[in-house]
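Progress note, project year one: complex with 5-O-phosphono-beta-D-ribofuranose.
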Amino acid sequence: MANPRVAVLMGSDSDLPKLEGTFNTLRELGLEFTADVISAHRTPAAAHAFAAGAEEKGYEVIIAAAGGAAHLAGVLASQTTLPIIGVPIPTSNLGGLDSLLSTVQMPGGVPVATVGVGSGGAKNAAVLAAQIIAVGDPDLRARLKAFKEKQADEVAEKSRRLKEKVEG
Ligand code: RP5
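Model obtained:
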């Protein structure tokens, strides 16, 4: 993409299927992004280097997804003042509570904006990234408003169908 404003990093390629909602929503909102695998534990030097150079490359927000001992978002947050959104990946051993606590429990002064575990969280990471960037981008703010209106319309349609089915 020509002008990526969001970097989506994941601790392993095994996380990719859980991030479908992130990528689809970034596309829907017209936000350009890059995606890569960087591990806080297996490639710590790459994690430090990416975060330290991200601002200079033009990124405005970093989304960091990891599971288990999920330290990627926190390690990135230690090296940059860009906003970091942490996505805790669901795990088969502990259900993602491990990922959630590892991502969210940051020490004071080094925040990670942590979204929920699961598909809602993956989608919300993209929406939150857009909302952060939209503070200085009226066009993106308009796209976000349209996105939320579409969501509301979909609920109204579900309500109509449900009433028809249940009430007759
Ligand atoms: C984390 O360890 C990754 O984010 C992934 O969720 C988990 C397992 O990684 P793999 O063993 O599947 O590569 O760092």
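The chain has six helices and five strands.
The chain has a mean pLDDT of 98.
No further modelling is planned for this target in the current period.
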